[in-house]
Amino acid sequence: MAENPPSWGPMRSFGRIKSRTLKPRQAALMETLLPAISVDPSRPIAPETLMPGARETWLEIGFGGGEHLAEQAARHPDVLLIGGEPFLNGVGSALRHIEERSLSNVRLHAGDAREVVAALPDASLERIFVLFPDPWPKTRHHKRRLIQAELLAGFVRVLRPGGRFRFVTDWKAYAAWTLELACKTPGLVWTAQSAADWRTAPADHVPTRYQEKLLGDTQPIYLEFERR
Hints:
By secondary structure, the protein is α/β, with parallel strands linked by helices. It contains nine helices and seven strands; from the N terminus they run ααβαβαβαβαβαβααβ.
């Protein structure tokens, strides 16, 4: 781990933590399965101890209901998938997917995934996914957006050379915000060669329930950045 990992001050998630009572099955999994697969970001995280022999380690920040996380884990059983999500109903949903599909390569943090980034060693990740984060469209709320310069600097630290950061949103302003900040971040390079690269879903993209609701002001915009 870096000697002085980035600090964002007291971390606060501005989105909902819980919206409804957990279903009995999900509540039970929170008591049984979650403790067995949780990561503890209060101390340095060593991916090689979480899943010895894993080919790569990927991180999804804000995994929502866990559909994307679970599908990627199922497609890549030799990859360690770490997911962070403060919304407890989403954590409960992800646990259900993990149990139903008998996924042994997923680890979760039921909290702010920025804590996971801060606890990971340098150059420990091959991929980072941020899919449809809360856009906080009002100007006075932009400081609440997940994507900030400090977090992108953290991505550069934990990504290995050649590692990828994928950001997907259906809000034009948030896409522009992220593109501007990422292009100003030393070590991150936007990989797009043509408009099709940000208008067309990557071949390995997994649609989520949120994406299907079409709640934004544009079709999904796919931004991919490489650590160089």
